[in-house]
Amino acid sequence: MQYAGILRWNHSLLAVCMVLQLLVGELMDVPGEGAEHEAAAGWIISAWAHSMPAGTVVEESWMFEVHEFLGLTVVALLLLRLILALTDLPGANWRHLVPWCFADGRRALKSEISSQMAGWKQGKLAPPEEGETVARSVHGLMLLTAMAIGTAGVVLFFGWNEHGHQSELIEFVGETHELLVGVFEALLAAHVLAVILHQRQGHDIVSRIKP
Ligand code: HEM
Q: How far is the CA of 195 from the centre of ligand 1 (A)?
């Protein structure tokens, strides 16, 4: 299977913007009452740059503006991917991304996991021709997590007080945003590791998605 041209462009832009966004998100200072946010999100490992003495109001930085811009770009790309999921373009349909929602998808997942598990334990991945249900599930989970992060981000874009104290609701949305970034990073690590293993085994999946 080859992915449709628009999907390849969508993926490349999404990959570049999201990887940059993860880096910027780790390095930027968050404007507002930094210490308040830090205390509330204490159980989440937050960016080192967020640690501020109690009561300090952090000014908006250019990095935070880049974060807002990249975030809105990612949301637009995800919305485009959502629209494409409603089409039958090669590799685009939403049914590919959530196989666990269908009886035959669940069956395929079960049989793929049981027949390929032994190989995975030795770092070997079966070629895509032998089943892609697990890979598609990871793709679907990445998109769903990215959409949830983006939705929380849009709420924060409109609700975050850049000059002081946050409401409890906005604190909660901020913590959820950060927690989901952790989930997304784990999925992205698995995705990139799978790509590297496939390429090393000569499956050349990159040419299926390269614009
Ligand atoms: C370092 C960056 C990345 C690399 C090297 C990479 C590589 C790839 C490759 C080679 C494929 C094709 C897999 C196949 O043959 O089925 C693919 C598909 C896919 N990747 Fe990535 N990827 C990256 C980042 C991301 C990010 C950040 C996302 C975020 C959501 C993502 C989501 C997807 C999805 C959803 C697909 C399936 C195509 C689609 O449904 O749009 N990838 N990726």
A: 9
**Res. 103: pLDDT tops 60:** yes
pLDDT in tens, 24-47: 999 998 998 754 444 444 444 444
Number of domains in the chain: 1
3-class DSSP state of 187: helix
Q: What number is the average pLDDT over the span 89-99?
A: 96
* Dist. CA 115–CA 109, nearest whole Å: 10
Look up the domain containing 72 and give its range. 5-209
Among the residues of 132-167, which ranges form H helices? 133-159
Nearest CA to ligand 1 atom 25: 15
Share of the chain above pLDDT 70, in %: 90
